[in-house]
## 1
Amino acid sequence: MKFTSKSNTNLQLNSLVLTYNDGYKWKTIPISLLFEKKIIYDTFYDKLFFSPEKDNFKKEKRTSTKVSICFCPKSFICIIYEGKWNFQKYKNNIMILENEKNETLELSFGNPSIRKFESNIMEFKESLLKYPDSLFIDYKYKNHIYKPNIVPLIDYLSTKKDNINISKYSLLVGKDTYKYLEKFEDKIRDKNGFIIYGDKDAMINIYKPKIIKVD
């Protein structure tokens, strides 16, 4: 699928969209399209800096990585994984993915050995304000009506007394979730925090998180 600088005419200002950065550009995909496809493939780019022998300054070089943008219509959870993954089945309302090596993966925070990337779900009007230069996927799709309560969930490492790191989850609810994330972003990253967005009830059922009210 191709990306262009023009948004799809089907998109309304209150339509839900997925936004992410591929290393070069911000990109926007309608949730309605992800409802149809479940998985969309793209390429991400990593920045690498190197110093040529003849130069005193560092030059930028980028490497490419194939990724799978995986969306679960039942929970509205979306995680971008490195590599090519396909939808296999649902298990307890959680998507099960499979790759070419017949390895399986739950659409959750999953195996820490598999690289993953963050994305965001928001209304189209909000994405236009935050990412005015975003590219849009060029594809015709059908709008869906259902609109869940989308909230962010943070996966972070917590250290026990015996110095063992375990994953813990915090779910943010309220009007000021974005302000909270901006304020505590450094602390979240210090704990190797990873943020996903999804339906509030589904993520409470799946992760049993601590709920933080940020009104």
Note: The chain has a mean pLDDT of 85.
## 2
Amino acid sequence: MHFSTVAGLALALGATTAQAGTYCYRTGADFSPWTDRAKYHAERACNGYTVNGKWVNGLFRGDFGSNQKRQTCVDLAAGKSMVIDVQNYAGARAAPRKETCTEIFTALILDCPKGGRNDIADWRYA
């Protein structure tokens, strides 16, 4: 999970650990004022949403191929955006649990105000 401003992306020049498997970036844009908006977009990417009365699966739903990575960039506010991605490191097709996806991104958003990543089992959430 990376946060950017119009000036450029938040770079991970260093990291700290918030909880096992979680690495918080120490440098870059601070998105604390937009945590609710960030959680909203992460939940939509993990679970899905309705458009014009029709259900749309979130980007991170369904099977991922071996080593497949899916990524999206969403606007949080004027000049502020968030890049989130999920990658399958397993040697076979697999699908992330939507509950796990939402829980991990929520924790990253709340615990890592400059972005971060979580490596758990055969998955990376960033």
Note: Residues 4-18 have pLDDT under 50 and may be disordered.
## 3
Amino acid sequence: MNYWKSLWPSNPPTHVVGKEQIVILRERLLQTLFLSAFALSTLVYGFLLSIVLRNNSSGGIVFLTGIFIILLVLTLIRKLAYIPRAISFIAILFVIGTISMLQFGNSGSGFLLLITFVTVTIILLGPLAGFGSTILSILTAILIPYGIENSQFILSPDVLNPNTGLGWARSGSIFVLAVGIISISISIIIMGLQRSLQQSFDLSKDLQEQRGSLSKAVQDNTINL
């Protein structure tokens, strides 16, 4: 198979071919999320980098570049094991959500990303991991605002400056990202489940037809005897 075609979600890698449908479905979803996130990061990387450079933030440059490189590698090297890739994507969501809350406080963007973090964890890794991510998100959502209110955390505009006119654009883009990830995840899961149910229905129908044909053949042979 052509390498670029192998990156398309509908072409699962060899290490998941033949496994349960839910495993293949989750891997396809993960690749879809990586492709979407990488495409978005490619579009906004230069814009965000220019803001970071204006703020003279070396930490922001390292962070943005690191996230971009991680997304690039994990998107292009699909043959890597599923669990490390899934955990990496989930970790990126959590880190960005936490930094958003540390940077801008109770602005809503961090909460949206934490909700997305929990949702994607449940879908990609299952209910047990989802429960752990829920506890982690709740603790994060409580401790960070508490720390800000008590001056334990110092807000520092490393990536974006909330005092500029870019505040609305920042909140809007993060909101679109969160809603997009949730919508894509749920849509793919539903479509996959519907496909699985249809396949099960078709298999059951074929088995019933074969059983009917076998019964008829047995009756014909009995009559002939």
Note: Confidence is low (pLDDT under 50) at residues 156-165.
## 4
Amino acid sequence: MKSLARFQQFLESIPERRGLALLRGSLLAFGGTWTVTQILSFAIVAVYPGPQFVGSVFSSVSGVIGAVLLAPLAETLMMRGMFWALRRLRCNKAGLLGWSTLFWWVSHVASESWGIPAAAGFWVMGVLYLAFERRSTDWAMVYVSVFHCAFNALSFGLYTFVHR
């Protein structure tokens, strides 16, 4: 738990950085999160292969645009609304992150191989959103949307490479 708390502190420090330090922190957060979720994904597939998505929505151009661009933008908007609603219910930061992570995990669990690891990615995006929101809501929206788009693009690229 100590290392998770330290990682959260690291994530929360990213908005305070400028220039190359902001880029370096962002790349470390992105790379670490993406790597952990991919390791979890491949470990789950090794134990429980589940359904194969050959010929799925990911095989069309519109599916790629949806998964890599539109879904992350819509989900970031939904995250903003969810945090607003949870704050109205007087949730603290742990509650905001917990409920948000649970919601996104449940909504992505259609595939065990990427749905379960999605919880880690959405927790990180929630921490980053809340941290950047202290700077401005616009910064939070843009940063998390770009983070999420890049995350999905890289994941989709790996998925396509492995399943071709």
Note: The mean pLDDT is 88.
